[in-house]
Model the fold of this input.
Amino acid sequence: MTAIPTLELNDGRPIPEIGLGTYAMTGPEGVESVAAGIESGYRLLDTAVNYENEREVGQAIAESPVDRADLFVTSKIPGRHHGFDEAIASTEESLARLGLDYLDLHLIHWPNPSVGKYVDTWRGLIELRDRGLVKSIGVSNFTAEMLTELIEKTGVTPAVNQVELHPYFPQTALVEFHRSIGVQTESWSPLYRDGGLFAEDPITEAARAHGVEPAQVVLRWHTQIGSIPIPKSANPERQRQNADIFGFDLTPAEVAAISGLERGRMKDRDPLSHEEM
Done:
């Protein structure tokens, strides 16, 4: 089992440096996959209302020998639940499906700017934190301008912003902005969704130099640029391999070369225009 180090969020709470993505882990196989991840050492489990697998994640947690207090469970509020009261109701429903008393981190899944309710939703998350139903609160897919608006209108800085981030889309300016205001970056689709990434010269060369797999190089790159990757894998061996990235360090030149692979988003999911309900 891999021991995963932690970072400190702006609210003082520790968060693991790598998490397990659970998208598409549904049904009995989903429960088994999440349970395998916990057994492999993952403590950060990332789900969402729109993944339709909160029950499966909750079942894996309930059946695990790992204490609930040692797990860091994240879920996300969908666009159809934006609004102050709606956010509170959505979170209570998530907790019921998960079978938990609290979430370690709750995020606004997408800002959906045309709806115009993400500030009200954020106020709902602040209320949930004050009630103790959520320990840390954050957002996903927010721009620097949206983060600034939340802070200016509520006085509360998100602990996390989870965004698309991988070597083809390193989001250098946003990561630096996060660092400047104390927001922790998380990466969804950290390994991209195309095996071609692993054939890129900077990645294969680093893998040979350090005696590791290309996926491990990419995930270590994430942690070294200051982002928490949330790779999704249902394969226990790959889960263990993905978590085993803290025994080597990429050189600054290797990090820069991997960041230099930048070419853009996987799909047209610009938060200013892409919306999910």
Summary: DSSP finds ten helices and ten strands in the chain. The domain at 6-260 is CATH 3.20.20.100 (TIM Barrel).
